[in-house]
């Protein structure tokens, strides 16, 4: 998306564009300036950040980017998607209070195909994590 926005910002490009309804950003850190740049070309577009662990269906967390706070250093990681959960835990796998840093663990029914019924791949990421019986996987990020 950043490459496209940079291209659209070049002086030689015709600025008459069609509409864009939805922008999904994933795969890397999102520059804080990017959502505003997207809005400048596509004012009606909704921009959503997506993330997660490879083992947990790639996308397990989302954040609708509606505005950027001046004190932000990054876009918030977001909220768990349907049938997914996340936990922030300490080194003893105990829940951390709000605003206290810890390790992010993802749990839920979203399990990437290569990990389904493959204990060799799952064991390193799930053996020491306290998950409920209905959980498929949790992953330290």
Compile the SSE list and pairings.
Elements: H1 2-9, E1 22-26, H2 34-41, E2 46-51, E3 61-65, E4 79-80, E5 84-89, E6 103-108, H3 119-126, E7 137-140
Descriptive notes:
This protein is α+β, with helices and mostly antiparallel strands and 141 residues long. The protein is built from 3 helices and 7 strands, in the order αβαβββββαβ. The chain has helices spanning 2-9, 34-41, 119-126; strands spanning 22-26, 46-51, 61-65, 79-80, 84-89, 103-108, 137-140. It has a 4-stranded mixed sheet, with no helix packed on it. A 3-stranded antiparallel sheet has the order 5-6-7. α2 links the parallel β1 and β2 (46-51). It starts with a helix and ends with a strand.
Brief descriptors of the model:
elongated; 3 helices; single chain; 141 residues; 17% helix; 4-stranded mixed beta sheet; Luciferase, domain 3; alpha+beta
Briefly characterize the structure.
This protein has 141 residues and is α+β, with helices and mostly antiparallel strands. The protein is built from 3 helices and 7 strands; from the N terminus they run H-E-H-E-E-E-E-E-H-E. The protein has one domain (2-9, 20-140): Luciferase, domain 3 (Roll).
């Amino acid at each position: 998306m950043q490459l496209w926005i940079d291209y659209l910002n070049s002086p030689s490009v015709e600025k008459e564009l069609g509409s864009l309804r939805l922008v999904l950003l994933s795969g890397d850190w999102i520059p804080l300036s990017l959502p505003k740049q997207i809005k400048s070309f596509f004012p009606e577009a909704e921009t959503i950040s997506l993330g997660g662990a490879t083992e947990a269906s790639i996308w397990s967390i989302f954040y609708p980017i509606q505005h950027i706070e001046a004190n932000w250093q990054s876009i918030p990681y977001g909220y768990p998607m349907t049938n997914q959960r996340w936990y922030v835990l300490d080194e003893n796998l105990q829940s951390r209070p709000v605003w206290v840093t810890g390790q992010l663990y993802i749990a839920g029914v979203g399990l990437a195909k290569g990990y389904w019924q493959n204990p060799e791949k799952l064991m390193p990421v799930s053996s020491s994590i306290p998950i409920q019986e209905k959980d498929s996987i949790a992953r330290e990020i």
